[in-house]
Amino acid sequence: MEKRAIFGGQTLPYLLLAPQLIVTVLFFYWPASQAVWQSFLIQDAFGTSTEFVWFENYQSLFANREYYNAMGTTALFSILVAGFSLSIALLLAVMADRQMRGAMSYRTLLIWPYAVAPAVAGVLWLFMFQPSLGMVSRGLRGMGVDWNPLLKGGHAMTLVVMAAVWKQISYNFLFFLAGLAAIPRSVIEAAAIDGARPWRRFWTIIFPLLSPTTFFLLVVNITYVFFETFGIIDAVTGGGPAKATETMVYKVFSDGRLGGDLGGSAAQSVVLLLIVIALTAIQFRYIERKVTY
After folding, report:
1. Among 3-12, 17-26, 48-57, 130-139, where is mean pLDDT lowest?
2. C-alpha to C-alpha distance for 55 and 241, rounded to whole angstroms
3. What does the mean pLDDT of the chain come to?
4. Is 106 a residue whose pLDDT tops 70?
5. What is the Cα–Cα distance from 191 to 184, expressed in whole angstroms?
6. What is the band of 291 on the pLDDT scale with cuts at 50, 70, 90?
7. 46: Cβ–Cβ under 8 A, 6 or more apart, which residues?
8. Exposure string over 204-222, b if 16+ CB within 10 A, otherwise e
9. Of 67, 76, 78, 97, which sits 20 to 30 A from 44 (CA to CA)?
10. Burial group, residue 252, by CB count within 10 angstroms (0-12, 13-18, 19+)
11. Residue 131's Cα: distance from chain center in Å?
12. If phi over 0 gives left and psi between -120 and 50 gives alpha, with beta otherwise, what is residue 144?
C-alpha cells in the first residue's frame, strides 16, 4: 500500500519547496531574464553608457554569416556526439549486462569518466593527441597520418567529438544498464525458447522496452552537447582552427567575453535557449509517440 505524507497546514509544504524554488529563480530565471534584457541593449567599450536598441542586436546577428557557420558546426557536432555516445553506451551496457567474470570492475571502470570535469577531459585528450608531444599522435605519424588538430579543422572537430563522446558515455551507460536490469528475464527467455536469435531478441524485445530510457537520454544528450561541451572546446581547440570548432555556445563566450559585444552575445544566448526549447518540444511531440512504456 502506498504511503502518503499528510501535512496539517500549508506552511510546511511551502517551506520544503522553498530551497528548490530559490535556487531555480536565482540560477535560472534571474540570469535568463537578464540575458533577455541585455539583448536589447548596446554598451560602449568601457560600459559607461547604455542604449536601448530594440531588436538591432538580433538583426545584426542574423545578418552575420559567421553565426550561420556556428549553427552548422553545432548541428554537426550535436549529431556526432549524441549518436556515438548513445550507440557506444548501449553496446557497452548490453555487454556489461551479461554474466561474466570481473563484471563489477568492468562497470566501475566505465563509470569513472563521468566524475571528470569537461575541461579536464579536454586536457587529457589534448595531451594524447597534441601534434608534437602526444603519444597517440606520434603513433599516427608513424602510420603516415599527418595528424595536426592545431592547423586542420577536420582533425580538430574529430578530437573534440572524441573527448565529448568519452565524457558522456558513462552517463548514458548507467541509465542503459539500469534499463536493461528492469527488463524481465522471463520475456527474453521465452523468445529464446521460441527460436529468436540474439540480434532479433534485441531489436524486437530489448530495444523497444528500452525506448523510455533512450528517449530520456536523447533529450539529456542534446542539452549536454549544446551547453556542457563548452569546457571541452575551450580546453582543446578554443574554437579553432579558423573557427572550425566554434559552436553556438562557444561563440556566445568569444563574442561577449573576448569581443566585448555584450548585447550581441546576450542575443545569441537567447536564440540558443529558444533552439534548445524547440528541439526538446519537437522530441516530446513526435519522438515520444514511438516510445513504449
Report:
1. 3-12
2. 31
3. 87
4. yes
5. 12
6. low
7. none
8. ebbeebbbebbbebbbbbb
9. 67
10. buried
11. 27
12. left
Only one residue has cell 540560477, namely 27
Classify residue 243 as left (phi > 0), alpha (psi -120 to 50) or beta. Answer: left
Cα–Cα distance, 211 to 205 (Å, whole number): 10
214-244 pLDDT per residue, tens:
988 988 998 899 888 999 999 999 888 888 9
Q: Is the pLDDT of residue 8 over 80?
A: no
Extract the C-alpha cell encoding 146. Answer: 599527418
Work out the average pLDDT over 183-206: 84
